[in-house]
Amino acid sequence: MKSIPECEETRQDKRIVLQEKKSKITFLNPKNVKILVIQVDGCVIDDNQTARCDYALVPKKELEIYVELKGRDISHAVRQLESTIRLLSENPQSVKKLCFIVSSRVPKQTTTIQKIQSRFKKQFNAAFRVKNIQEICDLSTL
């Protein structure tokens, strides 16, 4: 991932919580591994024209995690994740990625979401998950 030192923070907390309004994601870090947390929205990308997600995390060299904390507009969140991956990932197809949308209102697992999951896997080598209100991800299992 491209480095932007002024927007990066290395954390070793057992729990890394990212929250915006009602949406929240918690990354469990039981081994206190150094995790690079990057504030994308408002720091890495600070203009009003470019779609961007809220955060990116790098728990290890071969894994990138992208997070969008959203209200309701899932299709806009998908565009934000795609745009951020294209802008920040050194190699969008080879490095393994996890993409999370944590929304205050999520549609059921429809064919639309399944198509998005398939597209993200093909285009970005990314697992794609949409969750309602909060999500927990154990980094030690990745």
Tally of separate domains: 1
- Report mean pLDDT, rounded to a whole number: 92
- The residue ranges in which pLDDT falls below 50 over 5 or more consecutive positions are none
Rg to the nearest angstrom? 14 Å
Strand content: 35-45%
Order of strands in the sheet with most strands: 1-4-5-6-7-8
User: Which sequence of SSEs, written as H and E, runs from N to C?
Assistant: EEEEEEHEHEE
Major β-sheet annotation: 6 strands, mixed
Determine the structural class based on helices, strands and strand pairing.
alpha/beta
Percentage of residues in helical conformation: 10-25%
The CA-CA distance between the termini, in Å, is 18 Å
Characterise the protein shown here.
Helices cover 20% and strands 39% of the residues. It contains 2 helices and 9 strands, in the order E-E-E-E-E-E-H-E-H-E-E. 34% of the residues are buried. The protein has helices at residues 74-88, 111-124, and strands spanning 8-11, 15-20, 23-28, 35-39, 55-60, 63-70, 96-103, 126-132, 134-138. With 142 residues, it is α/β, with parallel strands linked by helices. A 6-stranded mixed beta sheet has the order 1-4-5-6-7-8.
